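Chains adopt folds. We examine one example:
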Amino acid sequence: MSLSIGIVGLPNVGKSTLFNALTKNDALAANYPFATIEPNVGVVGVPDPRLDGLAKIFGSQKIIPATMEFVDIAGIVKGASEGQGLGNKFLANIRETSAICQVIRAFEDSDVTHVDGDVSPSRDIETINTELILADLQTIEKALPRLEKEARTKKDKDQLAVVEAVTNAQKVLDSGTTLFAGAASAGIDLALLRELHLLTAKPFLYVFNLDEDELSDESLRARLRDLVAPAEAIFLDAKIEAELIELPDDEALELLQGLGQDESGLSQLVRVGFDTLGLQTYLTAGPKESRAWTIRKGATAPEAAGVIHTDFQRGFIKAEIVSYDDLLEAGSMPTARTAGKVRMEGKDYVMRDGDVVEFRFNV
């Protein structure tokens, strides 16, 4: 499932450092604007401790997690919507992603220059959102006359609904609000805007890059969280995250616990990003591998089977399903069956996150 999250932000906020840590990659991280010119793409495994549990139960040789794609996009600057700082190219790269992760600098460091001279998370968020909003307004201004003409010519109710949605979207954007934040209260169905590929209609999430002391400041975190609501906010120190990935698991956990955390910021980002994209996983297991498969929330059993192979969906008969928690408690599939925890589900079954599944199908 090719869904991706674009990592965006002003220059020198720690985007590439974060991306490198996420992907254990070595994208150029430098103290000057546009260190990233072409977008770097990385595929990241989604942390899922349930796979370890399954591997023990089934004696699996391999563990294969679900994955997500992250795209490190060059820094946005004021005027990007008008082409400043290679803005048109960067905005086109953002348009190709499924969701937007804004990295916001909240740390002070005299050795790392800020493009505006000082650190102000609220101003940086406003700068990025303004450029995205202006780009969307340009898109709407070009498209709306065509859409209105088509609606008049065809006298199509569906097309009229699209025109109304686009017109209302324009009003939301004119007020300085992103569609992600303002569409629901304005009664706009974002699905009607899909053909325009509007940037601010994508799901948003925010990563605040803090220093070690700020990470433990609950009042600061609460203020930053309020800045971006209803979007999810993740707090981390990109430098520490880069150190964590170089450590053995036990040493990394010890360092995290010393900071008062049980989960790394990167793990939080991947987990929250996965949820933001409207995704969930189901699990399969056997002696060869325990594996997590990615599906959209609300997917039916045949659709889930089709992720493994289209033949599975076409020839779907039944799905033998047990919840991970029930299987873990039972300790084995035979015991789970004896306890009545394993059930057979048909074509109308809507998958739940953490279902452990074996599909039955005709080839």
Q: What stands out?
A: The domain at 298-361 is CATH 3.10.20.30 (Ubiquitin-like (UB roll)). The mean pLDDT is 86. The longest strand covers residues 289-296.
